[in-house]
Every structure is written in structure tokens, then in C-alpha cells.
User: Which sequence fits this backbone?
């Protein structure tokens, strides 16, 4: 058993509480990503799992053992740090062997383990090099290698890709995913990058201000965000959010009444936030669509797709549409058509998602 | 819109791959650079003037090491005598003894005095109680700010056979009082010990700064890997500050011939010349007290030459073996 369980985990520095009672159950072999903006408590949570921060209250269990008071070295976890934390005076092989030597593993065994892991990570020809002589991606691989050689129960990743350029990040992301599929080790991964979270995670934990906003699979969170924070955090560009009021037959936003896929008649008059994903609109009208007039400010071509930046009243909106290889026809867009079945509603006061009656 | 982004067609302009500026171009660039960055050069100016006035101009006087110098004829007017003074120096037992003493004291300083601030810095780094650490640091920094005259006074008093604390403590154990400062065999330990007491604390600041620069996630990573504090010190802290240690060692080696002159003058006496007289004190006695300026200049030049060779050698060795060097 190598699952991780956090129950009512609290972290406080003096009188300031930064993590407010987190409950999270991570199954064995699961890849869980903690995502949220800077200062939301995700790294602190990870460091509490690692044992680098003391847990103020609550229980942490790894496998069947309560770990609150257990030293980091005895938790059987390995951590990959944001800045790689490679020892600059040691070569790649010695960096990877560091933890094994400390644990007094026999020399021959260390050598075998390192060459196996170096083979997996494509580091065999760099074993004699020092970190300063490696590229960012190679350093990142060494940092992962150092974690892998330990054969831990749990991998902890603290924003491991944030120091890499965009191209390398995409490449390493895929490598991490492949490695997880191959090794099947329980992994907790912290990032502020929602694309990383969406692509890597079996389940995503969205955090904000020291609390969990929502836990779910990437598609669950994308399709059914629990509140406006999650809706605004996941998805690129984020979900458009417009203030409106429910009517007998839809949601009134400015002068436009947006059709909804369900009955809201009983709640008419309620103030809501209407959420429209940038990619959930079309440029031509269809069945059960509502035309939303926009004044277009800018067209950003991305190749096969383009981003339309515009205004609806005072609200700035972004929509995504396919270009068909040409963007000239987009400069004249004056309205987009919102698909009723894809519109999300949130309570204007609490920000919580509202479900539509059938 | 799209037309605006279209670049005009035409043959590409051929640019030379490597620019070879003319000497005139280089000069123009140099003046441009000075005009742009004049504030920085202005700030540098006092240091340059200081070097010129106090270190380069006096070098003119070095030629008296090769002359039969007379203060009446002046530096330029005195006749050349070649290496005569150096021959005199190396046939002078006192000078040879002074070289030997300098090397021995420096070696002791290097063996015991050089590691002391490093050990102190490593120890401070392990102290977790902030106010205790601050107090301890202040206490060890203090002796550095006390004048050598007072330091010597404290040492002389502490080792005094009548009122000194050392002899008093020895008395408690029934030992006879010893007049340490008149006994040649005690001079070097007392001198080196005093130097450590005076400078180890202040010297530790450099190493503490180097330790503060070590990436904290190296320690965190080591903690997760299972390293204890001792292993972290040996495997992370010391290797991480090794470049600083080497730079300080090179500087120290360059100063090997510069044994703390004033402290020797203040602590030694004719009874301890045998172990205490170093090159600089010998030069002082010959040059200023006996008026043999030319011989003293030859001694000083020899001293500087040895220091130059040592620092060059240390720098080269360090660059070759550790990729760290002063220049």
C-alpha cells in the first residue's frame, strides 16, 4: 500500500494559517496534481507530505503509517525540486548515487541501479558530467533520476518544469507521464500551470487561499467546475464570466437573453454569473444557440485556431474559433453564437455552480 | 493589413562574419565607453590614485636595493652596485634566520590559523538559536576591532609571571610560574594563538556569507535523501564553499611573507629573536634603526618577489585543479 491520505491538514506560521484543514485521499499509483495560483498553499502541502514542513494539525498517512512525526528520510518519499537541487560539485552519477550512498547501499548495487535509471532517462552518456555542463532538460532528468533510483513509495514534484522553456516543458511533460505509466509510483505534483495539470493528472486538486476548491479528473473539472474560481483557473483562455439574472426562460445578460438547456423558471430573478468557455461558441447560428453581440478588438491567430478578443458591454471576452487557414473573414465578426447546452451558471454571491433543472 | 507584414524583396546584404575593428575604431569605442560610463570611472579614480601614490610611486625607490644608497646623493645620484646587497643578505645569518622564522610562523598560521574561521563559520551555521548565534558572533568579531597595541598589552598581561591569568591558573595546579614571553619556544604558539583569537571571528564572515549563498533546496533534497547534519556539512556545505576557501587560501599564500609585523614588534624581545625575528622586523631594524636603507630595500624586494611567486603558483595550481582562481 502506498496511497497518501491527508486528513484535516492545517499549517500555521504563528498566528497566520496558510493551509486550512485539507482532506485528500490519493490512491496507490495515482498521479495527483495540486494546482492553484501563487501562495495558495500547494507547495506547503507538498512539503508537509515530504516532511520539510511540520504539520500544525491533522493527520498524514502514507501507506498504513501515520507520518506526522516521522523524519523525511523514513517516509520513503523522493522529491524533485523546482530548481533541480543538484549538487554542483558532483557529476551526474554521483548526484544520482547521493541518496543511495547515504542509505549505505552496496557499491555494485548502486552502479547497477544508476545505469538502469540513466538508460531509462537517456543520461548514460552524461554520467561523468557536472550539472553546470548540462542543459536545462538534462538537469531536470538528473533530478528525476535521483528520485527514481531510490525506488520510493511516493514521488513528490514541486513545480519541476517551471524553469524550462515552453518547448522543453511540453517534451518533459510527456516524459514524466510516460515514466509514471512505466513505474506506476504514486505521485503528487505541484504546479501553477493549468496545462500541466490537465495533461498529467489522473485527478486534479484545485487550491485557492489554503483550501481545496475542487477535486476531480481533468475533464470533470473542465466540464463541471464547482465554482467560478475553478472555472476561471482551468482552461486556456479561461471561461468568460458575465453577470446576469435568471428569467423564466433563460439568463438575461445586458439586453441579451441567453437560452439555457434546462428549466430555471422557478429561480427567475436570481442573480447569476453566466460562464461561457471560449471554445463553446460558433460563428454561425444553430439550433438552441443565442447570438451574443460583441465588439471585436483584436484577432490573435494561433494557426489552425484564432482568439477573438472583444467586449460585451464593459466585460472583456475571449473566444476561440477555427480559422480554416484564413483569418481575414474573422475581422468582421460582430456576434458569436452560444450553445445552450454548454452554458454554465454560478451563483452571483457565492460563486458556486448551479445545476439546471430538466 | 497583411501587406504591411510582407518584407520587400531584394538581395541580402552581405555582412562580414568577424568584425575586425581598426585601431582608430577601437579608440573611438573606448572614448564612447568612457563618456557613457564616466560615473563608474570617477568612482574608480580614488582607488587608482591611491595605488599610484602609495604603491607604484614608492617602487621608484626600489632601485636602491641595487645601489650604494646615500641620503645625500639621493636615489638617482647613488652609484649602482648590482646584486651586492643580495649577496650580503644571503651571507647574513640573521637574515637567513628571519626567513626561516617567517616561513615557520606562516606555516603554523596556515595550518592552524587558516582553518579556524572556516570551522567557526561551519559551527555558527549549525547554531539554530538566533539570539545565541548573534551574541556569539559579536563576541568573536570584537577582537578584530581592538588595536594590535592593546591586543599585545592583553597578551603580555595574560602571560605575565606575576599577575597573568595563565600563570595564576598554573599555580592552582602547583606548577611553577613561567615567563612565557622571554622563552623562544613559546613565542610562536603565543603569536599564532593570538592571531587566531584576534582574526578568526572576523575572518569567518566571508565563509558565513558563502554558506548563506548555498541553495537551501540542496539541504532539503539531502534531508529527503536521509542525510544527517554532519553528512550535509561534509557533502554539501564544505564542497559548496570550496571555491571561496580556495580564493582565500590563494590570498593567504600571497601574504605568507607578511607575518603580522606590528604584533611581532610588540611581542618580541631580544631574548626571543631566535624564533620571533621575521623578515619584516629585520628590515625594520636594519633600515630604520641602523640606517642601512639599501640593504633593507633588498630584503623587502626579496620578500615581495617570493610573495609574487607564491601567489602566482597558488593561483595556477588552483585554476588547474579546481577551476577556481583569482584571475
Assistant:
Amino acid at each position: 500500500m502506498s496511497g497518501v491520505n491527508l486528513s484535516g491538514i492545517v499549517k500555521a506560521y504563528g498566528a497566520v494559517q496558510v493551509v486550512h484543514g485539507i482532506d485528500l485521499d490519493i490512491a496507490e499509483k495515482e498521479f495527483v496534481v495540486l494546482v492553484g495560483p501563487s501562495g495558495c498553499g500547494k507547495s506547503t502541502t507538498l512539503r508537509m507530505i515530504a516532511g520539510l514542513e511540520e504539520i500544525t494539525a491533522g493527520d498524514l498517512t502514507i501507506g498504513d503509517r501515520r507520518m506526522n512525526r516521522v523524519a523525511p528520510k523514513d517516509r520513503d518519499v523522493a522529491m524533485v525540486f523546482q530548481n533541480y537541487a543538484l549538487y554542483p560539485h558532483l557529476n551526474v552519477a554521483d548526484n544520482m548515487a547521493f541518496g543511495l550512498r547515504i542509505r549505505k547501499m552496496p557499491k555494485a548495487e548502486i552502479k547497477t541501479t544508476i545505469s538502469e535509471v540513466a538508460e531509462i532517462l537517456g543520461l548514460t552518456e552524461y554520467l561523468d558530467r557536472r550539472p553546470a555542463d548540462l542543459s536545462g532538460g538534462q538537469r531536470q532528468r538528473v533530478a528525476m533520476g535521483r528520485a527514481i533510483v531510490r525506488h520510493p513509495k511516493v514521488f513528490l514534484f514541486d513545480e519541476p518544469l517551471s524553469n524550462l522553456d515552453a518547448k522543453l516543458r511540453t517534451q518533459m511533460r510527456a516524459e514524466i507521464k510516460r515514466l509514471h505509466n512505466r513505474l506506476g509510483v504514486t505521485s503528487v505534483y505541484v504546479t501553477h500551470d493549468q496545462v500541466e495539470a490537465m495533461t498529467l493528472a489522473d485527478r486534479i486538486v484545485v487550491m485557492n487561499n489554503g483550501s481545496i476548491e475542487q477535486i476531480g479528473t481533468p475533464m470533470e473539472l473542465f466540464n463541471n467546475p464547482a465554482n467560478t474560481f475553478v472555472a476561471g483557473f482551468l482552461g486556456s483562455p479561461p471561461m468568460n464570466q458575465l453577470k446576469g439574472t435568471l428569467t423564466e426562460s433563460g439568463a438575461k445578460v445586458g439586453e441579451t437573453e441567453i437560452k439555457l438547456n434546462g428549466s430555471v423558471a422557478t429561480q427567475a430573478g436570481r442573480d447569476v454569473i453566466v460562464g461561457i468557455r471560449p471554445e463553446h461558441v460558433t460563428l454561425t447560428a444553430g439550433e438552441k444557440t443565442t447570438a451574443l453581440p460583441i465588439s471585436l478588438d483584436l484577432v490573435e491567430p494561433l494557426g489552425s485556431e484564432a482568439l477573438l478578443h472583444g467586449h460585451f458591454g464593459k466585460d472583456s471576452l475571449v473566444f476561440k474559433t477555427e480559422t480554416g487557414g484564413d483569418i481575414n473573414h474573422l475581422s468582421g465578426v460582430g456576434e458569436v453564437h452560444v450553445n445552450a447546452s454548454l452554458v454554465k451558471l454560478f451563483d452571483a454571491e457565492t460563486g458556486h455552480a448551479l445545476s439546471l433543472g430538466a | 493589413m497583411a501587406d504591411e507584414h510582407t518584407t520587400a524583396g531584394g538581395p541580402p546584404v552581405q555582412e562580414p562574419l568577424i568584425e575586425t575593428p581598426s585601431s582608430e575604431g577601437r579608440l573611438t569605442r573606448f572614448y564612447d565607453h568612457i563618456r557613457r560610463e564616466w560615473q563608474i570611472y570617477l568612482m574608480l579614480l580614488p582607488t587608482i590614485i591611491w595605488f599610484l601614490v602609495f604603491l607604484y610611486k614608492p617602487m621608484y625607490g626600489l632601485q636602491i636595493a641595487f645601489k650604494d644608497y646615500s641620503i645625500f646623493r639621493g636615489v638617482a645620484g647613488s652609484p649602482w652596485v648590482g646584486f651586492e646587497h643580495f649577496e650580503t643578505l644571503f651571507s647574513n645569518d640573521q637574515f637567513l634566520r628571519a626567513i626561516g622564522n617567517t616561513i615557520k610562523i606562516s606555516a603554523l598560521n596556515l595550518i592552524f590559523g587558516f582553518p579556524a574561521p572556516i570551522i567557526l563559520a561551519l559551527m555558527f551555521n549549525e547554531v539554530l538559536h538566533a539570539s545565541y548565534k548573534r551574541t556569539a558572533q559579536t563576541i568573536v568579531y570584537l577582537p578584530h576591532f581592538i588595536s594590535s597595541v592593546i591586543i599585545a598589552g592583553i597578551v603580555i598581561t595574560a602571560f605575565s609571571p606575576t599577575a597573568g591569568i595563565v600563570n595564576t591558573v598554573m599555580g592552582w595546579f602547583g606548577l611553577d610560574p613561567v615567563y612565557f614571553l622571554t622563552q623562544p619556544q613559546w613565542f610562536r604558539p603565543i603569536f599564532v594563538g593570538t592571531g587566531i583569537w584576534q582574526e578568526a571571528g572576523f575572518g569567518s564572515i566571508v565563509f558565513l556569507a558563502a554558506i548563506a549563498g548555498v541553495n537551501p533546496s540542496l539541504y532539503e533534497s539531502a534531508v529527503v535523501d536521509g542525510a544527517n547534519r554532519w553528512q550535509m556539512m561534509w557533502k554539501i556545505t564544505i564542497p559548496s564553499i570550496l571555491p571561496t576557501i580556495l580564493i582565500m587560501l590563494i590570498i593567504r599564500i600571497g601574504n605568507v611573507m607578511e607575518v603580522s609585523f606590528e604584533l611581532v614588534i610588540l611581542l618580541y624581545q631580544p631574548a626571543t629573536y631566535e624564533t620571533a625575528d621575521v623578515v619584516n622586523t629585520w628590515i625594520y631594524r636594519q633600515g630604520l634603526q641602523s640606517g642601512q636603507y639599501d640593504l633593507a630595500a633588498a630584503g623587502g624586494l626579496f620578500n615581495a618577489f617570493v610573495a609574487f611567486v607564491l601567489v602566482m603558483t597558488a593561483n595556477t595550481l588552483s585554476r588547474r585543479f579546481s577551476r577556481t582562481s583569482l584571475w
Notes: The two ends of chain B are 56 Å apart (CA to CA). The longest helix of chain B spans residues 293-322.
